[in-house]
Amino acid sequence: MALGFASAAMAEMGPIESRQACMKANGKMMGVMVPMMKGEKPFDKAAIDAAMADEAAACGGWAGWWGEDTKAGGAVETYAKDEIWTDKAGFEAAGMAYGKANEAVKAAADEASFKAAFPALGASCQGCHEKFRRPKG
Ligand code: HEC
Questions:
Q1: CATH number for position 23
Q2: Host domain of residue 112
Q3: Is 85 contained in some domain?
């Protein structure tokens, strides 16, 4: 019963809230990875895998979250820029760059390959945000 309730609550989460929850999981994943990248924390493959699994679970519905009806100006506050819809190819390319970098980090089995793969992942977040997200505040 508790499970049924949880999935009903998730089903009620609209596309804007869902993509923001996905992005929050992305942010948490960065919180795990950046200190390892900087050498402030030891490389921990299990922690990376866990954060990436959370991110994958939170972002699984991605393809369904970017309809024209989810632009800014509706009932739910969003920081999505109109360029997502005026430059669909660019937005898709930014998503692909992220996906590719994500795969490379996931495949990194040791610290050296993690440190080699991570910068492209960080750059892919930034690359998309610069073009397609309004800064908060
Ligand atoms: C293909 C584009 C794209 C990629 C790649 C991307 N983002 Fe985002 N991100 C967005 C958009 C668009 C928003 C605004 C969503 C909204 O408000 O509806 C956003 C919002 C966010 C937010 C704010 C969420 C909130 O509302 O609290 C965080 C944090 C975030 N992104 C982190 C990341 C991180 C970290 C990465 C990389 C690991 C990343 N994003 C990759 C497009 C992207």
A1: 1.20.120.10
A2: 17-57+78-132
A3: yes
Q: pLDDT tens across 40-58, in order?
A: 999 999 999 999 999 999 9
| Amino acid sitting at position 104 | A
Ligand 1, residues at Cβ distance < 6 Å: 16, 19-20, 23-24, 26-27, 30, 78-80, 91, 94-95, 98, 121, 124-125, 128-129, 132-133
Q: Give the chain's domain count.
A: 1
Is 4 a residue whose pLDDT tops 60? Answer: no
CB 104 within 8 A of CB 117: yes
Residue of minimum CA distance from atom 8 in ligand 1 = 23
49 alpha carbon – ligand 1 mean position (Å): 20
CA distance 109 to 94: 25
Q: Which two tokens stand for residue 18?
A: 């869902």
